[in-house]
Amino acid sequence: MAQQHDNLEVEDFDVLDAKIPTKTMTLNMGPSHPATHGTVRFNIELDGENIVKLDPELGFLHRGFEKSCENVSWTQCLPYTDRLNYVSALCNNFGFLSAVEKLAQIEIPERAKYIRTIGAEIHRICDHLTGTGATAMELGGFSPFLYAIEARDLLWDRIAELTGARLTTSFGRIGGVDRDLPEGWIQKVKDSLDRVAVLRDEISTLLTHNRIFLDRMRHTGRITGEDAVNFGFTGPCLRAAGVDYDVRKAHPYWVYDRMDFQVPLGSEGDNFDRYYMRIEEMKQSDAIIRQCFEQMEPGPIIIDDWRYTLPPKPQVYSTIEGVIGHFKVIMEGIKIPKGECYAYTESPNGELGWYLVSDGSGRPYKVHCRAPGIPLMSGLEHMVRGAILPDLVPTFDTINMIGGEVEQ
Amino acid sequence: MSVEKKPVTMVNVTVDGMPTSVPAGTNLVEAAKTVGVDIPHYCYHAGLSIAANCRMCLVETSNSPPGKLVPGCQIPVAEGQSITTNSPKVKEQQRAVEEFLLLHHPVDCAICDQAGECRLQDYFQEYDYRPSRFETPKWMSRKRVDLGPTIVLDQERCINCTRCIRFMDEVAKDPVLGMFGRGTRQVIDVFPGKVLDNNYSGNIVDICPVGALLNKDNRFRARAYFLTATPSICTGCSRGCNTFVDHFQGVPYRYRPRENMEVNEHWMCDHGRSSYHQLYDGRLLEAEVGQQQVEAGEGLRAAAAALKPLAGSLAVVVSPVLGLEDALAVMLLAKEGLQASEVYLSGRADGEADFYLLREDRSPNRKGVELAAQAFGLELRRFDQLTKARPKGVLLAGVDVPVEASGFADWLSGVEQVVALAANRDPVSAAAKIALPLATHAEGEGTFVNFDGRAQRYLRAYPASGSSRAGWQWATALLAELGYAYAYASAGEVFADLSKRLPEGALGDFDWKKTPRAVVKGVTPLPGGTVDGRPPGWRELIPLRTPSNNDGSSAA
What we know:
heterodimer; A: mainly alpha; 3-stranded antiparallel β-sheet; 6 strands; 48% helix; globular; disordered N terminus; B: alpha/beta; 8-stranded mixed β-sheet; 5-stranded mixed β-sheet
């Protein structure tokens, strides 16, 4: 947001200049615009080329998922969470389940914690690859996007091997995870991560010192740490502004307290910092996954409590206890004790929080999702006001709004 | 049923730390209910004597012998007593009882009609929730014991709570059931040479806490957890037993008694219980003019055209199977639209009354129709006077007749114009020149007035099938065709407007808007309670199944 873009004050007019009566122009951008990823419409008021006012219009992906959750059992909410931030479904799955488990006061088995950490970190890399690649693409660099997607698809193949789906994983169950790691999967993930690291470095090489990229990214879309906190920013966008807050460090969950990893911090709070934050976080996630593989030991992957989990199939088919347990969980849903809770995890875009209320029945009484994208969207106008219109594109890219997430 | 006016002594107790005050003599289970604590139980039933044999309701009390648990169903409250229902000792007892009861229970849930409303399932998930430690094979027993014309017993599923034995002895006064054998081989059966053919035998299926006793009528027909229970009134006789009509996708599957201590207590008779078949079987679903199916509007216009010239010389026949609102609207039609001064009261033929609930009068709303006629100053004539009267035309509101149907149909064929509002196909509706399909009481809402003048509401369980409409709808539509503007949008509006004409205080303190009980979707009482009883993800009444077979064979 350089000085030359600022509105000229009336006093600056030279007396010889003719006064041109101008008025602001309203520009509609989106909802399906080639330079944005995410379905959103911007109502932009422009003074010349400078943004005077920006009014983001959300709701194109609104599905009423919070309300829908009230009509299904706790387990059946899981597929809805896939569709929040659909690039990192596992982070949402596990975040939601963690909240339900907090409400039910369940402590999940060690191995399940490791599997959740691995899954979440792989999807964090996927999410950052997508965000970074899309940013480059929308600024005209198509190659980094292709590299990013190649890397992402490698990881999605691993996710498909683990969960059975590339995108909508619905993986994890209340009390643990759905199934254990497949045979030989660990080595495949390590090999994939090696390749992803090469591609990630390639992207970084292409972008980080690229003059065109730097011109578009540096000192644009700036926000101070204080403002970011006031807007409720979390995740890479907050840390890019120099505020050291990462849920994984501040309030460790699963096995993050046993992991040796750094939280990268920015200083400028501009688009470049937000981009670079993601490159650095991918490296940390890589390290976390490899540490998990070293540390994890064989063991149960889900708790053994028939109030919350399905009995093993041999028991269901041959014992009355098993068939009753199965019937009650399937037909009436898992009964989560009465109460309410707020639980939160670090999703790729920031703090993904869940406020849940249970009335003791098989279905949620209320589900609210604190999507990290909403505060980011609300801070967008602050970040681009006064800037030229082209600055909106990288700013919107680096906050990485996900339509499925902010429009519940 | 008589109310004794004795001074009630209240006793103060605490249940899990919550103080409450209950009448002296109340047992611990009922006392705990007052503060919302459910003490689990199998053998205890409020309408039967106490057996205390299931041991599920054992709780700790402050005045029990040290270290002993006491049965909550049997022990009356004592002043200052503190009851503990959630101590580790009680929990372990509940778990142990549940484990014991399931030791020899067959793996039947998938084929059991009780699944979804089974106490074994509910309490297992709440108090046991762990695998069996039992490794030897289960005892086998007789799976299909034919107890009589209505009831089948599965001895393997039975937990020997003896509710059925006590019911047959104490309520039905027909002690044909007994307990045979000892230990694991102990079974329920009928005494040698006896048959369970009592008119109240259906109740033992309701009170059986597990799936041991099954009604042949709806065995293997419906999944209990898919059924929605709507409060209704039985139309089998003039008692007006409070019921639930359990239905799914627009098809009724059974009646169950709904507790009303002033009318039917906890029970209903088999005669009434089987009457739900009329809600579905052999229905007339489309309007017919001269036995040709026509659109409802065309049928209506034909009926109005046929009735108009006969105004003043027409016999209006009202069936007491119609609700009060229907009867009021039909009386309005008779009085204003058709200038009648008298109406004939039809209804089902009387049967034999029994010692308990079943009444001689097999129509649910005779009192209501009498009141409706009174409201409009119409003289109410007996049915046998109709055949002597030789009217030019007959309007039958409901085709239930107390005489032999085919004989009456023959008489009708000699009448110039016959318009019938008919719910079911029978010789009478077939004899009508114009037949308009009538909705059943399960398809609409309204009021029945029972034999002692008690007005009771029934609710709409599912939408009307085919083109059928409620009696009040046909009556107001006919009035509109005849040029009278009575625009009622609901049975409630009919009642609100026309009940003003009823004799003062005819319905006592009856309040139409006070519904008997909110509709409880799924099964009632709720086994464990999803939010409103529906299984998760289930959408009510979609897709709606319309009865297509009107040949008398039942899908229900």
